[in-house]
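ok here's the first one, seq then struct tokens
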Amino acid sequence: MRDNHNYDVIIIGGGISGTALLYTLAKYTNVHTVALFEKYNEIATVNSNAKSNSQTLHCGDIETNYTLEKAIKTNKTATMLENYGKLYGYQDKYMFKVPKMALGVGEEEVAYIQKRYEEFKKDFPYMKLYDKEALRELEPALLKGRDEDEELMAMGTDERYSAIDFGEMAKSFVRNAQKGNNNIDIHLNMEVETIEKIGSKYKLTVNSKPYFANYVVVDAGAHSLLLAHQMGHGEDYSCLPIGGSFYYSKVDILKSKVYTIQNPKLPFAAIHGDPDIVHDNTIRFGPTAIALPKLERYHHAHFIDFLESLSPCSEVVEVFYNLLADDDIREYTIKNLMYEIPGIRKQLFAKEVQKIVPSITEDDIEFAEGIGGLRPQVIDKKNKKLLLGEAKIDTGEGIVFNMTPSPGATSCLGNAYEDAQLICKYLNLEFKENQFQKELVQ
């Protein structure tokens, strides 16, 4: 590691987003020196860790809260990550072809699935429509114990890499970025305390020591907005941290990722069942969604940081009021609070799981202690609404702050591509567009 504390680019955050940018800069630009700062002792210990997310590569095909336009865009970034995995031989190592489907239950939802399939089949030609008999063969647990007269239909596929260990992918980005490149420094156990602009450079104070960069990208999850606020940027945004928990099934009952249909009023994911790729013969159900007064789920966090990122004001209160004034959202919020309360949570959550697996009982599931993450849900104070996709604060002054709600980790290389373009333009560097397109896009 160099003694010089000066870099062309400094990346803050060693999750899947920060490491994807590190790899993109090392592989596809002529940037000279890059440093990545991660405050913990290992890469990808927070939301990118396999225990903290649903391990799903979101292609937009079974995410029923996505419009066709967003699904096509999301599929493009998902394909980048698939192609990266194939480039390095990570099939069946870090990414897996787990069957997946969006399940419609009842007459209304079945009609919705049929309509969506017709709308999506041109752009997602690999998707199939599964009627009740096909589902009985593919996933018998979906039918066992269900009323024979209840309508059932799904759209899905077994042809895509749908499950990914994002934590291992993040570590692979670092390894592959460093191959043959001596101009990349990885700083672990080093938390960025402050950032300030001095002339044309940025000074970062890290463990009371100064580091300097011509360009800074902050990929620090919920802390991105906190650092932005401390520099006077992004003041039209607030961060509402939403924690998600999971339940484990004690019986191995699904081979597929089974998603339920999203209520369009609800800003958070509908319940789904996922085979856990890092724990054999284990099925996860979830996530729940609960607002938490902290910026990280299972790490020590200061309450004052939460308040600074929330930046409470009349606009934020109005957003909360409008959300809770809706009967569906209020009921959803109360139920998800109860899913966290020992003594009553298993019985209540089992009723949610029964929409997917009718025969399951509260004795068949258990709360997955220490499993789940936290997503920085961004509030647009100016327009008084929640932002349901990625939020980027590009100052135009050589520093960018990224917050990545849905589709989250899936968009890591797509976001890295955008940031690399900004960096190359600002620093007058070359971007190897043809190589990037050939290896990751085509």
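and now the second one, same deal
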Amino acid sequence: MNYNPILIVSGEPNSIFLEIFFKILKKKIKNPLILISSEKLLKLQMKRLKFKKRIKVLNLLKLDDYKLNNKTINLINVEYHPLKAFDKITSKSNSYIKKSFNLAFAILKKGKITKFINGPISKKNFLSNKYLGVTELISSKFSKDKTCMLIYNKELSVCPLTTHVPIKLVSKEINKKKISEKVILINNFYKKKFGFKPKIGILGLNPHCESVNKYNEDDKIIKPAIKYLKTKYHVSGPYSADTIFLKNNRKKFDVIIGMYHDQVLTPLKTLFEYDAINITLGLPFDRISPDHGPNEKMLGKNISNPLSLLRAIQFLEKH
């Protein structure tokens, strides 16, 4: 196998992912891409979206023997029988998605491919209540230790301490150990990939880091954790979430850790839109997910922005 290929699972069949994948193939990409998807689905969507490219179906048993490039779509075919190019997202595609991910996991466990991208899935239909998200699904298969969701942009990245947790449960999930784990993973990642220790700002949980309740998580948990971490890492805080992302404040940091998902993802997506990628830290391989969902409303319109997938591929090629 050549050039350290990038393994890609297309994910939910009724999503915009293949549309943006087709757009990416028009770009100059050095590393060969290996797509795990359905040949029938590919052909239907290519016809609908008026995209032409030859498909090369790969034999899993001979994967190491191929000399690949991106002149064709290098496909590991998973049987799926769509009636049309795009349909409503339902649980009917669950077995196809599960088989696609299991194939990817089996390939990754061999250790010869170390770069992985997955397209979006419907958390409600595919994950049900077993996992909070794909990050947790993948982490459960490959890491006994904790992992970390980093939404990365070269100017500023963010990390939610809790991921897809209902707001009413967030305060129960915050503790000193979790804060320390995220800081250590982020610090190690930046040192390994970029050669420096990042400046990390940590947000409080409550508005202005204050609370009318007797028990204040900012005073009892977050401040002591930061005090402890300051001895080894470039961390500071807690900061109020309503001002940290102002221009003169955010430029002081490489990474901002928030206590819950929307506290940090909303401002980052407002600042950079599609120019961000979701990296899972703590895995034995590089896993990235483009920072978008299935986007059912835009199916088949051929107007979806491929920038996040392009940034994911560019990051894996460079690092």
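notes on #2: The chain has two domains: 1-143+285-291, 145-282. The longest strand covers residues 33-37.
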